[in-house]
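name: query_chain
kind: protein
chains: 1
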Amino acid sequence: MPDVSAAPRVSVIVPTHNRVHYLVPALDSVLAQTLPGVEIIVVDDGSTDGTEARVREYGDRVRYVRMAHQGAAVARNVGAEAARGEYVAWLDDDDEYRPHKLALQAEVLDTWPEVGFVYTEMSAFDDKGFADEWHLRRYHASAYKGVTYEDLFPQRYRLAETPLAPLIGVAGPSQWGDRYLYIGSIFDAYLHGTLVFTNSILFRRGLLARCGPQQPRFGLAHDYEFVLRLSRLAPAAFLDVPTYRLRYHPGQVSTSARPGGKLVTIRKQRDFLRVLKTFVRSNPAYCRAHRAELDRQLGRLHRAVAIPMLAYVPRTPHEARLYRRQARRHLRRAARLGVPDWKALLLSFVPRGVLDVAHRTVLGLRRRRATDVPTP
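structure:
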């Protein structure tokens, strides 16, 4: 049995559901961390593929918690309740850590006590040979369009001149010393764009009492909404070196590059819209002070819901009428909020065949690759 008297430095929460073939390399990547004192908690979200037996083979190196299938948000909350570490990290069951991830991030939180969480650059790969070492700005392309890290953060530190320098020397190429650590409040900017790759964060467990748990009602945006709350409580740090490896594959929950992918995109954009509308209702003073910017962001999100609705090929006449009506409603709301798209609104009235052509021309809705991830 593990020694429960010694609190771990970091707790890594790995929610999983029927992905035992990916889970093994994910767990192995945590066990390969250079930081000692790492607690691994696998929260089995109702798997039926032999996950429990495979995790049990790790013995006391991995804690196993089983729950009825309720989704990733609930699984992360269950893991957070079980965590004993000073700091908490997440890992999706189909992704991997690089060996230096937790050591670098823990050093940031140790050195800068005012920082509530640290996120990092990330890499991407798939099983067919695709690899992108510096993937964050592509993954969140719309949030970073025309934006530099210097625009977001008032403080920056060259890594070779920080306490991270010895770790950087071991972890990566010598050029990493010339990259930067950035520190500051990102709440205002993050409210308008998904700047943070949320899976990469390491945060102080002590913030959970003030922040509260993740909210399943926000669906595919539950992690964004949680980190949004964190960013309002404390400054963030961004470490501009890749520590997390995102695996692209057809079975990803949030991918739009598969049959029914347009429905995933619609759901995702609806969830982001729900987050912002909830924030607006709950924070009247903030919203009065930032009315114009919030209205424009709400308008962009209404349009972001409408466009994939028009692109979706319906299965029944009823579905066709339903999605067109909903798309028009979102486009009209977008126009009232200062983000009109009259071409899209006009096209919502044209016959299906004409609309199919328009998807590839006027609306520019070409089929997305797996690496093209929409952001609000």
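note: The two ends are 45 Å apart (CA to CA).
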